[in-house]
Design a protein that fits this description.
alpha/beta
């Protein structure tokens, strides 16, 4: 059985313990990157959520994992808010898979 992981600052991720997530606290993007590498290498995770502000800083590292079938690595806003980075990465992935912008074509 695979796990679901969550990486981010304490205030943004602590509530996910009650949902059964494997929560990993990171004080900065560098620490988050180290944790991410360990979780991917373990092979135990199907999904890893990464707080958006760390994902922005780690975008080059995240690109290395895009072609892997597992884990699916996605971002979510933390307490510091939503910069739109996570939604943009989802939009780009859908466009690549489908060949067109089917999510936001009418929102422009």
């Amino acid at each position: 059985m695979y796990k679901i992981g969550m990486i981010g600052d304490r205030d943004s991720v602590i509530g996910f313990l009650s949902l059964g997530f494997s929560v990993h606290e990171a004080q900065d993007a560098e620490t988050a990157g180290t944790i991410l590498k360990e979780l991917v290498k373990s092979g135990e995770y199907a999904i890893i959520y990464l707080v958006e502000r760390y994902a922005v800083a780690l975008r080059d590292e995240l690109d290395k994992y895009k072609e892997l079938p597992l884990p699916a690595i996605t971002t979510m806003p933390g307490l510091s808010g939503n910069s739109g980075y996570g939604m943009n990465t989802i939009k780009t992935a859908v466009e690549k898979a489908v060949g067109a912008d089917i999510l936001f074509k009418d929102a422009q």
